[in-house]
Amino acid sequence: MALEIFWGSGSGFSWRVLLALELKRLPYESHLLQFSKGDHKAPSYLAMNPRGRVPTLRDDDYIVYESIACLAYLDRKYPATPLFGATPEDTGRIWRAVCESVAYFDEPCESFILPLYFGKEKEKETQVRSAAAALTAELAQLDVILGQRPWVASLDVPSAADCVAYPMVRSVERAASKPSAAMFDLPFAALRTKYPSVAAWMQRVESLAGYDKTFPPHWR
Fold first, then answer.
1. CA distance 94 to 126
2. Residue 153 gets which letter from DSSP?
3. Could you give the CA distance from residue 70 to residue 186 in angstroms, rounded to a whole number?
4. Treating both helix axes as pointing N-terminal to C-terminal, what angle do 88-104 and 106-117 enclose, rounded to 10 degrees?
5. SS3 for 31?
6. Which of 46, 61, 163, 183 is deepest in the core (most CB within 10 A)?
7. What is this structure's pTM?
């Protein structure tokens, strides 16, 4: 049986695992859940993932959820085209970058994008402005890093660090482009102009084989 991924369109956490599957060139069966229909809260799905979140990965009778856990499982089970490096030094760099993304980018990303996605930017203006300030600092640092090397973890090939970071950066770009975001006068409203090294890296990710299959359908 092929690997199966249960995911949601626009979920950066799902996107991480889809990118990893394509990067490793693994065959998989895709199950796109419809949040509007409550698919992620259906009893059959909750039996696999009691938190009712996405993504969930099923490999025969083994089930794993939480995006980073999914990446770690895929790399250990299918070691070809490693996501976490081929040497201890590579592994350390990649895990450090993954941990930094999770610790410093994920929370402000969610705090920023969700009010803009769901029309609550005025209600949550303070939250959005605070998150935007944190994201500005993180994007500036990422731009410096990517000005020194082509991929987030300083390797000559993409890794788990890129799978983790890209969906969140791309989500910030999408949210910042919404008309309602104009009220915040965001420094990253034109993200690819403000951060040219980040822009070049995003283009490299978007040029990877299989990238188009991972793109959120409802963003097209």
1. 33
2. T
3. 33
4. 40
5. strand
6. 163
7. 0.96
